[in-house]
Amino acid sequence: MSAAAPAEIRLTLPDGSQRTCPAGSTGADVAAAIGPGLAKAALAIRLDGKLRDLSTKLTGDARFEIVTLKDKNEAELLELIRHDGAHVMAQAVQELFPGTQITFGPATDDGFYYDFVRDQPFTPEDFAAIEQRMAEIVKRDLPIKREEWPADKAVDYFKSIGETYKAEWVAEIAKRGEAISVYRQGDGWLDLCMGPHMPSTGKLPVAFKIMKVSGAYWRGDAKNRQLQRVYATAWRDPKELAAHLQRLEEAEKRDHRRLGREMGLFHQQEEAAGMVFWHPLGWTLYRSLERFMRERLEAARYVEVKTPQLVDRKLWEASGHWEKFRQNMYIAENEEGIRDYAADDSERIFALKPMNCPCHVQIFNQGLKSYRDLPLRMAEFGSCHRFEPGGALHGIMRVRNFTQDDAHIFCTEDQIISESQAFCSLLQSIYKDLGFTDVRVKFSDRPATRAGSDEIWDKAEGALKEACDAVGLEYTLNPGEGAFYGPKLEFVLRDTIGRDWQCGTLQVDFVLPERLGAEYVGADGARHRPVMLHRAILGSFERFIGILLEHYAGKLPLWLAPLQVVVAPIVSDADGYAQSVADQLEAAGLRVTTDLRNEKINYKIREHSLAKVPVLAIVGKKEAEQGSITLRRLGVEAQETLALADALARLAAEAKMPSRA
Question: Model pTM?
Answer without folding.
Answer: 0.79
